[in-house]
Amino acid sequence: MRRIVGGLVLAAALAAPVQAGDEIVLRHALSGPALDTLTTLVRRFNSGQKGKSGVVLQDLAGMDEDGRRQLPHLALLDADDSVAFFGTLPRFKMLYQVMAESREKFDAKRFFPLVADAVDDMQGRLQALPLGLSLPVLMWNKDVYRKAGLDPEKAPKTWWELQEHAGRLYDAGIKCPYTSSRFAWVHLENLSSQHGEDYAMREKNGAPRIALNRLVNVKHLALMASWYKSYYLRYFGAGSESDRKFISGDCAILTGESYLYAEAQRAGFAAGVAAMPYYDDVRDATPARFLPDGAALWVLANHKKKEYQVAARFVGFMLRPEVQVEWVRATGFLPMTPPVVEALRAAGVAPTLLDAAIRRLSERKPATARTKHGAGLYRMREIVNQEIAEVWADSKPAKEALDTATRRFNQEPAGLGGAASAR
Hints:
This protein is an alpha/beta fold. The protein contains 17 helices and 13 strands.
């Protein structure tokens, strides 16, 4: 399960006391600056309610299975972590419905197009609030690069250059030259997007289909398998297990979520960050065509109307520009709306990274080009991770594993169009 980690945590994870009755519970798995900031913001929200009920934070850490099954009102999580958060796959109430029924202002058009695309449904309606999104990036340990005789200021731009760097690191005695978190998102979904091979589609009759086994996907997974066998690549799990290996200094290179760079800067070594590698021998490749993803604020189903009204007010509070700036600066997550960008720029956020991120987030992308959060996305990644495990075990070659994953998913009735509320 993904944990958002950082420095010191506040002693109390609960927000300021609120009156009994319609207060709502927000479950999370945060720590460090992210938890500190969320706690501060929740206290501020509660203090402004003027007698109305507010929000209470609930830390997932230490909760047993029975506790997890007692569903909260809100949860800040990557939807892939639903089982870890709740012990089951619960039903969610769509955010656009919560806001409309509570008569709170909420316009999906105010969000960056690609941020909205990460959490909307097939009709462009927001299912959740995209509070914790990231872009896929490459990070490297400059100190380890220097020891291995590599230029610490030069990141690999292509997968072939990364292979060369990993080989040099391995020859220098580095036991973990390269690793990756969130393998399906980085190495299938974003690889497909970078190289113009949309993996999600609908047939003329509207039936959802995916194609995980295109040439670039097979080629890439076969290359990763060869790196795995030669110890250039170390695989620690399908989720974010590799993050800890990079932050601890055990691994020299990581591909993963951009938010982690803020923590890497505090880890005690010189860390670099750059765009994801790509294949320069693939025609019409667009290296910067990334798909943001990550944690969002989801609303759980089957609660009272007054409780949903509290949730709607809290969402409105989190959308205030000054609140967004405070949140993004503390966590490293992507800004949700354009007005926040100038405030971040004025606050000294690295202009090169900020400009690159904003260019991509501002682009429009057809909603049918990716799976949507819900039964489809969760199940697709589950199947992909199962089949890739067969590749690491040397039980299947890359093409067979991706052919099997494609066939398994397309034969299931849920398909890629499953809404989050239908889980």
